[in-house]
Automatic annotation (TrEMBL):
Keywords, in A-Z order: Membrane, Transmembrane, Transmembrane helix
Originating species: Amycolatopsis cihanbeyliensis
CDD domains (alphabetical): SO_family_Moco (cd00321)
TM regions (residue ranges): 20-39, 59-81, 102-122, 128-151
GO cellular component: membrane
Gene Ontology biological process terms from the UniProt entry: respiratory electron transport chain
Record-annotated Oxidoreductase molybdopterin-binding domain positions: 235-369
Descriptive protein name: DMSO/TMAO reductase YedYZ molybdopterin-dependent catalytic subunit
Classification via InterPro entries: Di-haem_cyt_TM, Mopterin_OxRdtase_euk, OxRdtase_Mopterin-bd_dom, OxRdtase_Mopterin-bd_sf
Top-level taxon: Bacteria
GO molecular function: oxidoreductase activity
Length: 370
């Protein structure tokens, strides 16, 4: 007797949905590792400055594949839920391993997807540090998927390779057919992606009704952290503000007027946030290559950036040599033809190609050549 009790609960359905869920999880996992390595680079890791939209694409795929995984995960669980009521609960050691892997996988997957959605909305109803926990649980989820695949591989191969002619009616039960269930799953997944992908795909912005960021922000670019929340308004507006550039035992200080008198470079570059949204904009300022030469340093040196913000998590960042040699890495003074406003980093900010938004430090007060 078939252990499932309807066409929507067949092994064929479970294998097909599981295959697409595995692809979504795989894309999400790999792109998540990329984002983590860009933000916390190990010694061996090199992230290029070109193409300028690469991080925009990888992080957009990370969030979109995570959103696609939600309806796929629900469909997968629906297709296999009758197995939860099979008796005996444990029949053998491989069966125990299978059940344990499902428990760990389900828990880790739900945690990753739900907290990921809260992160996209910048809502954190918990006390733990989201990036670290999200990264650690990603490995747990990936490991449990591999264990589950190893245990279930014979079943998966059988389900995907056998002739299923007549499977839709073999049980003689009412409800969605196998094909109907799969089509509904694809439709729900496609709708979820279409409704949200506009956050990172400009062509879809007019149809993505749930897109969480648009070009309607200040100066045409969304803002995650305002000058008020960063507590920098007084320091940024101070008449005595100077950009301090330290190169070894030499220190040079630039006023805003002096920065404006240096050669200016204009480039169209995206802000690509870890939450998955991105927005292209026109930035104007001093190329870091020109600024380094102005203090007697050849481009290619690593640059430590310090913000006027004192307590923020991303108040400091490092611009690697790969980016300090790129002429599109700017100390930006203007945005979309206007002087930077406070929320976008006035008096100056870093904007570099192919970097996460959290590393595009705002309200810059100090640069140190390393």
């Amino acid at each position: 007797m078939n252990r499932f009790h309807g066409t929507a609960h067949s092994e064929r359905v479970a294998a097909r949905v599981g295959m697409w869920l595995g692809i979504a999880f795989g894309i999400c996992f790999v792109t998540g590792l990329v984002s983590h390595a860009v933000q916390h680079p190990p010694a061996w890791f090199l992230w290029p400055s070109r193409p300028v939209n690469l991080y925009r694409v990888t992080q957009g795929l990370h969030v979109i594949s995570g959103i696609a995984a939600i309806p796929l995960l629900l469909a997968k669980l629906w297709s296999v839920y009758p197995k939860l009521f099979e008796r005996p609960v444990v029949r053998s050691l491989p069966h125990a391993v299978e059940r344990a892997s499902i428990l760990v996988l389900s828990g880790a997957a739900f945690f990753q997807l739900v907290t990921g959605l809260f992160n996209v909305a910048q809502n954190y109803p918990w006390t733990f540090f989201f990036p670290a926990v999200h990264y650690a649980l990603a490995w747990v989820a990936a490991g449990s998927i591999l264990v589950h695949l190893a245990v279930k591989l014979p079943v998966i191969r059988r389900a995907l390779s056998r002739d299923t002619t007549g499977e839709d009616t073999e049980h003689g039960r009412a409800g969605l057919s196998r094909r109907g269930f799969l089509r509904t799953t694809w439709l729900a997944t496609g709708s979820a992606v279409l409704a949200t992908a506009g956050a990172t795909v400009p062509l879809l912005r007019d149809v993505s009704v749930l897109s969480w960021r648009t070009s309607n922000g200040s100066q045409g670019v969304p803002v995650n952290r305002t000058a008020v929340s960063a507590g920098v308004i007084e320091a940024a507006r101070a008449e005595g503000w100077r950009l301090e550039v330290v190169a070894g035992d030499r220190t040079r200080r630039f006023s805003l007027a002096e920065l404006g008198a240096l050669p200016q470079t204009t480039a169209e570059l995206p802000i690509a946030c870890v939450e998955g949204w991105s927005q292209s904009a026109t930035w104007t300022g001093v190329a870091v290559t020109d600024l380094l030469r102005a203090v007697g340093v050849e481009p290619g040196a690593e640059l430590a950036v310090s913000s006027l913000e004192r307590s923020g998590l991303w108040a400091r960042s490092t611009v690697p040599g790969e980016h300090t040699t790129d002429p599109l890495t700017l100390l930006a003074l203007r945005l979309n033809g206007e002087v930077l406003n406070l929320d976008h980093g006035y008096p100056c900010r870093i904007i570099a190609p192919n970097r996460p938004g959290v590393l595009q430090t705002k309200w810059v007060g100090r640069l140190e050549v390393r």
